[in-house]
Amino acid sequence: MSTLLTGLGVDRPVLAAPMAGGPSTPALVTAAARAGGLGFLAGGYKSAQALAGQIHTVEAEGVPFGVNLFARNPAPVSPEAYRAYARLLQAEADRYGVTLSGTGPLEDDDGWADKLTLLTDHPVPWVSFTFGVPDAGDVTRLRRAGSTVLQCVTGPEEARHAAEAGVDALIVQAPDAGGHSATLTPARPLAQIALPDLVGAVRRAVALPVVATGGIANSTDVVAALRAGAQAVMVGTVLLRTDESGASAPHKAALADPAFDSTVVTRAFTGRPARALRNRFTDRYSAHAPVGYPALHHLTGPLRRAATAAGDTGSVHLWAGTGFRAAGTGPVAAALERLTSGL
C-alpha cells in the first residue's frame, strides 16, 4: 500500500472523486470507504452549514474520508459579454418560464472563509482543493489541524505552484476528466495529454505523491496510471450511475443512452471549461459562451434546474468523462472491485 494512504485503513488505491451538485452523497463516500477505497465530499455549491451536516453524517459511519473545496480563483466576465450571453439564452429561459439575471454578473467565492474555518475548527482526514491554490498560510492551518492537504493540478507548472504552497500531495487531472477542469487558467485551451504521460511529467517536476484522475474507465486504466508513478487513482464518472450516487435521473439515463455518443469540453453552462455529454445546448452555445466563472454558473442555474426537472437532457449539463460508457449500475463496491481486478 502506498505511503500516501498509510494509516487510513485503505485497501484499494481508488478514491471516489468529489462531484459537486449532488452526485457525491454521504452514502457514496461511505460506500467507497467500506469497499476499501476512500471518498471525498464535495464542498462546492454548499453552505458551510450544509457541508458540516454531511461531514457529521459520514463521521458517524466511522470511515475515513476527505472534503473538497473550490479555492478562490475567479474568472471575471465583462458586463457587456455577460449581458450578450444572457440575451442569447433568453429563448431557452422563455421555454421554461424562468428568469435569468441579465442585469449584471454575480460574483462570489463559494463561502470560502466559512468553509475553511469549518475545516480548521473541525478537521477531517483529507482536504483537497480545485480551481485555485490556497495561500500557504491556509495550507499550514489545515495541516496543523491534522488534515492531509491535496491540490488538483493539470500540469507541471501548476504542480510547482502547489508544491510552493506546501501541500502534501497532488491530484493530477488529465483533460479526459468529466465535469470541470481543475485548470488554474480557464481562458486557455486544455492541453491534450494522456493521463500516464501527464503523471510522468508532473512527477519529474515535483517530488510529491500523486493521485491520478481523468478518463479512468477500467482496470487497465488504473494499472497504467499506477505504473506511471501514481500512488492511487480517483474516479468520478464511472460512479455516477451507482446506487449511492446522487446524480439526477436524467443524468444517469443519458450516460447509458445510445443517442449520446461523445463528450465535449464546453464553457456554455458555467463559464469554466468542463467536459460533458455533447447535446443540443453544447452544440448551440459553446462557441458563444465567454469565460466567466462563477457568473455564468449563476446565470444558467435556473435554466439548468428547470431542464433537469423536466427531464430535458438536451438542455442540461451532463458532466461526463471520456470513459462514460463504463458507468454501470449497482453498488459502489462492485464498481471499485471491477476497477481493481487487474491489480
From TrEMBL:
Please report a single Pfam family linked to this protein. Answer: NMO
Q: GO: which molecular function terms?
A: nitronate monooxygenase activity
Q: What positions belong to coiled-coil segments?
A: none
Reaction equation(s) it catalyzes: 3 propionate 3-nitronate + 3 O2 + H2O = 3 3-oxopropanoate + 2 nitrate + nitrite + H2O2 + 3 H(+)
Keywords on this record? Detoxification, Flavoprotein, FMN, Monooxygenase, Oxidoreductase
Question: Record's InterPro entries?
Answer: Aldolase_TIM, NMO
The answer on whether this UniProt entry bears the keyword Oxidoreductase reads: yes
Q: Which GO BP terms apply? A: response to toxic substance
The cofactors it requires, by name, are:
FMN
Keyword Isomerase (UniProt): no
Q: Which family does it belong to?
A: Belongs to the nitronate monooxygenase family. NMO class I subfamily.
Name of the protein: Propionate 3-nitronate monooxygenase
Native organism taxonomy:
Bacteria, Bacillati, Actinomycetota, Actinomycetes, Kitasatosporales
